[in-house]
Write a structure and sequence with these properties.
Number of strands: 13
Number of domains: 1
Radius of gyration: 17 Å
Length: about 200
């Protein structure tokens, strides 16, 4: 795919949130931007898709992969959550060892003025931290869609945040997910070093 090829983005209401208890091979997804982070013995990959994202976390033999996409041909092996993205939708998975994954999602339609302000703030924040991808502007309102992802450590866990803008619809899709190690085995919390690849 070249920069001149049109990128088809899904309707935000067609997006589905999926959580796998395994790594998902990258060939299943078309990623436009990717970043890998190693933090405290954890490996996190974050990637931006046409209308969504992928976060993949693993440590030792434990893995979670979060995918937000309209794609219908994704595998079902290891799939723990699969639901439409709707306002205020939340879900939780708790493993037998106490490792906990929680997520919330929201589709928000804004007024044109508020949308432009929020879109600008996300673009600005993306220049300073996280991972951002600006899609080509082929719309009538003068703003190209963007995807913006962040990964932040919190006490005994990690938080993944994602924002996806749909300028033609003045709509923003937001997700926030937490991996909580508080009740998991002690090795999840060792080694506080951090590096990005």
């Amino acid at each position: 795919m070249t920069h001149d090829d049109p990128i088809t983005r899904p309707d935000p209401h067609a997006l589905r949130f999926r959580l796998y208890e395994r790594a998902l091979h990258p060939e299943w997804l078309t990623l436009f931007a990717v970043r890998r982070i190693r933090y405290a013995g954890h490996t996190i990959s974050a990637g931006i898709l046409a209308g969504g994202h992928m976060f993949q976390w693993h440590r030792d033999s434990v893995a979670f992969t979060e995918v937000l996409a309209a794609q219908t041909d994704l595998p079902t092996a290891g799939l723990r959550l699969d639901h439409a993205v709707t306002d205020g939708r939340g879900a939780k998975v708790v493993q037998p060892d106490g490792l906990r994954f929680e997520t919330t999602s929201q589709v928000e339609k804004l007024t044109p003025a508020v949308f432009r302000q929020v879109h600008g703030e996300l673009a600005h924040d993306g220049c300073r931290s996280g991972l951002v991808f600006h899609f080509p502007n082929h719309g009538r309102i003068g703003l190209g869609p963007l995807g913006y992802l962040t990964v932040e450590p919190v006490p005994a866990g990690l938080v993944f945040c994602a924002f996806h803008t749909f300028p033609e619809l003045f709509t923003i899709v937001k997700t926030q997910s937490l991996i909580d190690f508080a009740a998991a085995p002690a090795p999840m919390l060792q080694d506080r070093s951090r590096r990005s690849e």
